[in-house]
Specification:
The complex is a heterodimer. By secondary structure, chain A is α+β, with helices and mostly antiparallel strands. Chain A has twelve helices and 14 strands. Chain A has three domains: 47 residues, Uridine Diphospho-n-acetylenolpyruvylglucosamine Reductase, domain 2 (2-Layer Sandwich), CATH 3.30.43.10; 116 residues, 2-Layer Sandwich (Uridine Diphospho-n-acetylenolpyruvylglucosamine Reductase, domain 3); 111 residues, CO dehydrogenase flavoprotein, C-terminal domain (Enolase-like, domain 1), CATH 3.30.390.50. In chain A, the strands form four sheets. In chain A, strands 4-5-10-6-7 form a five-stranded antiparallel β-sheet. In chain A, strands 11-12-13-14 form a four-stranded antiparallel β-sheet. A three-stranded parallel β-sheet of chain A has the order 1-3-2, with helices on one face. By secondary structure, chain B is of the alpha+beta class. Chain B has two domains: 77 residues, Roll (Ubiquitin-like (UB roll)), CATH 3.10.20.30; 68 residues, DNA polymerase, domain 1, CATH 1.10.150. Chain B has a five-stranded mixed β-sheet, with helices on both faces. In chain B, α2 packs across α5. The longest helix of chain B is centred in the last third of the chain and has 14 residues. Chain B is globular, with a radius of gyration of 16 Å. The N and C termini of chain B lie far apart (55 Å). The chains are: A alpha+beta, B alpha+beta. The interface between A and B is medium-sized, with 30 and 29 residues.
């Protein structure tokens, strides 16, 4: 249970880090909080030849207000800092509600927001939240920058749109439309375990109280965050009563295609998805209604 | 290629040459011979290797020693400066039977000391959540919870 040897670099600037990634390409791995990469290296499931440690890039950490109601979070911001941030609680309540579910405080003290998103573990909370909130990923490489929408960023199991010479530097969370409510639910056998199923819901109400937009994003049910697009749409134009929310949650549990594994059968995951989606929608609607 | 690092552990600075792949947990145990920090699962699940990194509890098996260059570490050996006098939390673990084999205990202590500093009057539910990242196979956790609540009472001078 010891990592294989590797070359270690600890760049002092983003430019230096990008130059190292450009030089070493697929041989190199950026090291963020290391809470997923280091266990994988201890098991020798990952054996990168080169590690580029991002932990001294202070410019990549920080939580800032962005325009009217938006939020920007540096990729190297520790999850614990996000959890404790009053600005996050105010401007991205879904993120604030989700953070305590991510592993344990000892892990969140090291784990970073960008690291979790770039890793795209199918059981991870943050990719689902990023997708639910229409987050935008700011991505740098040596000779340029691009911004990738969350919907284009998560490509599959442990796979994102990031190229080997690119770094995720910042995540932008745009403000929610008026009269929007959000909620997060997950079921795990013990607090801090990987979720058997989790769900983020987002509902926007029109002035007349009917649903104008809704969204359900699940995790631990596929190869990354999974949006139940059709099921969420069934709520649109409706009054969000218990029957409508139950029907939408039921449709979502049929729309997703969860795996069976040693932790839970596909049928049990569908059942959990339905229950969690109903709870999340109910709370999201309550919160949106309170803003009317 | 080795790296020269200087790490302050329990207030004392140590300079060593290390391989990049040396885990912080192994550095503490094998280089500094501070064997109070225990190594259980080596993939971040059991919590036995928890130490304070710049005052915050972290898994020392999920960091490389080279990453701690210039930083301060506190291990269980640093909880009390007097070998004849335990830290109040250690004393409470002893009195409330918060350990049996003791393998997990250093990790629990290093998780709970900053927890009690941040939350001096925790509820039982808060204590249980605080220790959710540490595994104990002997006690069934009840006596650990008792010990934390006892320590909290004493630290508050009641």
């Amino acid at each position: 249970m010891k990592p294989a040897p590797f070359e270690y670099y600890v760049p002092r600037s983003l430019d230096e880090a990008l130059a190292l990634l450009a030089e070493h390409g697929y041989d190199a791995k950026p090291l963020a909080g290391g809470q997923s990469l280091v266990p994988a290296m201890n098991f020798r499931l990952a054996q990168p030849a080169v590690l580029v440690d991002l932990n001294n890039l202070a410019d990549l950490a920080g939580i800032m207000a962005d325009g009217e109601g938006g939020l920007r979070i540096g990729a190297m911001t520790r999850q614990r800092a996000v959890e404790r941030s009053p600005l996050v609680a105010q401007r991205a309540p879904l993120l604030a509600e989700t953070l305590p579910y991510i592993a344990h405080p000892q892990i969140r003290n090291r784990g970073t927001v960008g690291g979790s998103l770039a890793h795209n573990d199918p059981a991870a909370e943050l990719p689902a939240v990023a997708l639910a909130l229409d987050a935008r990923m700011r991505v740098r490489k040596q000779d340029g920058e691009r911004v990738v929408a969350a919907s284009d960023f998560f490509l599959g199991i442990f796979t994102t749109a990031l190229e080997p010479d690119e770094l995720l530097t910042e995540i932008v969370f745009p403000p929610l439309p008026p009269r929007s409510g959000v909620a997060f639910e997950e079921m795990a056998r013990r607090h801090g375990d990987y979720a058997l199923v989790g769900c983020a819901a987002r509902v926007t109400l029109a002035e007349n109280g009917k649903v104008s937009d809704s969204r359900l994003v699940f995790f631990s049910v596929g190869d990354g965050p999974v949006q139940a697009v059709a099921a969420a749409k069934t709520l649109r134009g409706q009054r969000p009563g218990p029957a409508a929310m139950r029907a939408s949650a039921e449709a979502a549990s049929q729309e997703i295609d969860p795996p069976s594994d040693i932790h839970a059968s596909a049928d049990f995951r569908r059942h959990l998805a339905q229950v969690l989606a109903r709870r999340a929608l109910t709370r999201a609607v309550d919160r949106a209604s309170a803003l009317r | 290629m080795t790296h020269s690092i200087t790490i302050t552990v329990n207030g004392q600075a140590y300079t060593r040459q290390v391989d990049a792949r040396l885990l912080l947990s192994d550095f503490i145990r094998h280089e500094l011979l501070l064997t109070g920090t225990h190594v259980g699962c080596e993939h971040g699940v059991c919590g036995a290797c928890t130490v304070l990194f710049d005052g915050e509890p972290v898994r020392s098996c999920l960091m490389f020693a080279v990453q701690a260059d210039g930083h301060a570490i506190t291990t269980v050996e640093g909880l009390s400066s007097d070998p004849e006098r335990l830290h109040p939390l250690q004393q409470a673990f002893w009195e409330a039977h918060g350990l049996q084999c003791g393998f997990c205990t250093p990790g629990f202590l290093m998780t709970l000391v900053p927890f009690l500093e941040a939350n001096p009057t925790p509820s039982e539910a808060e204590v249980r959540e605080a220790i959710s990242g540490n595994l104990c196979r002997c006690t069934g956790y009840q006596h650990i919870v008792d010990a934390v609540l006892l320590a909290a009472t004493r630290l508050n001078g009641d």
